[in-house]
């Protein structure tokens, strides 16, 4: 069908914005800016519901599967930031890449460190290649979703980079579907759940006690892999696909069910005693999370802070530090309440680092950083006042002598 008269006559008021929602004609050459292809849409399941479409930017190696309203609002952000701002690549990004991809028996390919990687270094920043809604309404079936995924990959500049991630074949599904299902990470963008395929991150294997961790930025749609501890050349770089605080049994079940593999990481193949000790730690972490909050609510701040310290030391022991970042603000507040300004400052700084230390904060993150920054400055002023009072008191005593 020809472009609607509305589209043909008046250019959209905003170059990105209105074009997608008002001019979704597959035959109109200017209706799909900023995408390099006309959106490919399924027929809407009902006149009141928006259709699901593929939006591709081939040169950016990016395909989105979402509704036109979402594509023209939330997903504009990354485009407004292109070319990427300096923060897109963290200052501590290891360039050139400090790893190589090689075979790991029983796990397929994986990433091995090719030089020393210091804790806190960004090993890799990888922008998403296929970002698909995590859930579709009942009217959109498996076959339809498979069709959308096929188009999403075919339209990318180098579809073989995605197809090449396939390992098994079979399992009653197509190559693209298998790749997306076995390599995507659940991420949140604009309050909605998505499955994101990051072709370079996809080569990093899982470990239950990893030496690196992933952090997703909804602002740049990129995933960063950070070194959680110093990594030596020849060591495999691993991340964790499961949530913190799970016991080995729960992890094995989740990895099997969600990711479709039986974990053979060093923890899962360790002795019964070692695995038992790790399980006990993780169960304790889970119960301490509740205990810290309960004790704080009962006004038992000193006990709560002791429980928080114990929890953080267990988390460190289990190599899960990064997954607990949002917990730092709790001990920070508690230490402030009991008057330990030094420790309060340490934890508020950790909480701030969790947000702004890992790439892009996003709008909510920026507000939170401002809030934390004010608290940090307030504590620093209080500490300065204390120091001045102490110094004055000392001078007075010396004079009396
Ligand atoms: C995101 S990919 C990682 C890269 C993959 N090994 C490859 O060859 O491309 C996830 C797949 O790697 C394998 N894998 C990752 N971690 C593993 C682990 N700890 N134990 C066994 N297999 C693992 C599984 O086949 C899983 O489905």
Automatic annotation (TrEMBL):
Residues 362-396 form a coiled coil. Keywords: Coiled coil, Signal. SMART domains: SET (SM00317). It comes from the Eukaryota. The keyword Plastid does not apply. CDD domains: SET_SMYD. Residues 97-242 form the SET domain. PANTHER family: SET DOMAIN-CONTAINING PROTEIN, SET DOMAIN-CONTAINING PROTEIN 5. This is SET domain-containing protein. It comes from Staphylotrichum tortipilum. The lineage of its organism: Eukaryota, Fungi, Dikarya, Ascomycota, Pezizomycotina.
